[in-house]
Amino acid sequence: MRKIKLSVNMKPFVSRVVTDGKVQKAFAKQIGEPVGACVRGAVHKGMSGASIHKAVKDCAKGKKGTKLSY
Fold first, then answer.
1. CB–CB of 69/26 below 8 Å?
2. What count of other Cβ atoms lies within 10 Å of the Cβ of residue 12?
3. Contacting residues for 51 by C-beta, under 8 A, at least 6 apart
4. What count of Cα atoms within 13 Å lies in the side-chain half-sphere of residue 3?
5. Is 9 within a domain?
6. Rg (Cα) of the chain, in Å, rounded?
7. What is the mean pLDDT of residues 1-22?
8. What is the pLDDT of residues 14-46, one digit of tens each?
């Protein structure tokens, strides 16, 4: 997959991006799905931005520093 990115001096360039590699799949399975499920249960309609931010941060706390096995 190709994606337009910005260089350090803010000039656009086309770069190759891996989206279906071993590491990306391991991250999705070991971190993405559990944290996403936690966030889905913790966030509800009518919450303020700060409350949502705190809920997401609390859900991700347990996965910080996870070593991916792929």
1. yes
2. 9
3. none
4. 8
5. no
6. 16
7. 95
8. 999 999 999 999 999 999 999 999 999 999 999
**Is 4 inside any structural domain?**
no
Residue type present at position 47: M
Strand, coil or helix: 49: helix
Residue 29 lies in a domain: yes
- Listed in sequence order, the residues at least 6 apart from 15 whose beta carbon sits closer than 8 Å to its beta carbon are 2, 3, 4, 5
DSSP 62: T
Q: Is 1 a domain residue?
A: no
Domain membership of residue 39 as a residue range: 21-63
What is the total count of domains within the chain? 1
- How far, in whole angstroms, is CA 21 from its chain's centroid? 15
CA distances from 56 to 5, 27, 35, 60, 68 (A): 27, 17, 8, 6, 20
Mean pLDDT across the stretch 56-65? 93
